[in-house]
C-alpha cells in the first residue's frame, strides 16, 4: 500500500458543461458532478504533442478563471499491481479495484472482484445542429488577445467548439486543433490569450454541438495577425 496523487475535476455551476480537455475525448459533467483521475493535472492532460497539451492546460485554466471548473489534488491510498506486463496503479473504489495506467494515457477502468449487472441504456446521437453564422475576429487594444464572436443560429445546441491554427512568420500553417468549448448558456464569444511571436497569423473556426457531441458544419475561417 502506498499513496498517489488524485485530481478531481468538478462542475461547480448549475448547468451541465462539456470539458473537452478531459480524458478521453472530453467529459460532460452535470451540475455539481465530479470525475477523478490518478495523477497531477499536467500529467492527466499530457496527451499527444506539446502544443496540444498546452492547449488543454490553457482551456482548463480558462474554465477555472470563469468559475466553470474546480480542480482539487490530494493524496489517496493505492495498491501497485506488478504482475501485469503493463504496470497499473490500483485503487480501491467503492469495494472494487480500479486500474489506471501510470502514464495517465487512460482513465479509471474498474476491475471488479464481484460481477454486477448494469441496466442497458441506448442514447441516440440526434441530428447535427445548425452551424453558427457571422464569425468575426479582432485584436484587443494592445494586441495581447484575440476576440472571437459568432451568432447562435439554431436550436438543440449544448456548446460551441472553437478550433485554432496558427502560422508563424515565414512558416506554414499548423493543422486546426480544438482550443476551447463554450457552453451555449454563457455567451457567443471566446478570448484567446495565447502568446505568439509578432507577425503570427492566428485563425479560428467555430462549430455548434448538441448534448451527444454531434458537431455542426464549421463556420468560415477568421483570423488576426498578432503585433
Gist of the model:
The chain is mainly beta and 227 residues long. It contains two helices and 15 strands.
Counted by DSSP, the helix tally is 2
Number of strands: 15
Strand percentage lies at 35-45%
Please state the structural category: mainly beta
- The helix content is under 10%
Using the alpha-carbon principal axes, give the shape.
Answer: globular
Amino-to-carboxy terminus distance: 54 Å
Domain count? 2
Computed CA radius of gyration, to the nearest angstrom = 20 Å
Mean pLDDT: 78
Main pleated-sheet profile: 6 strands, antiparallel
Oligomeric category:
single chain
Description:
The chain has 227 residues and is mainly beta. The protein has helices at 41-44, 50-65, and strands at 2-10, 17-19, 27-29, 34-38, 70-81, 88-93, 96-100, 109-111, 133-139, 146-151, 159-167, 177-183, 189-192, 201-209, 222-225. The strands form 4 sheets. A 6-stranded antiparallel sheet has the order 4-1-5-6-7-8, with no helix packed on it. A 4-stranded antiparallel sheet has the order 12-11-14-15. Strands 9-10-13 form a 3-stranded antiparallel sheet, with no helix packed on it. It is built from 2 helices and 15 strands. The relative contact order is 0.17. The chain folds into 2 domains: 2-111, no CATH class; 133-225, Immunoglobulins (Immunoglobulin-like), CATH 2.60.40. The longest helix is centred in the first third of the chain and has 16 residues, at 50-65.
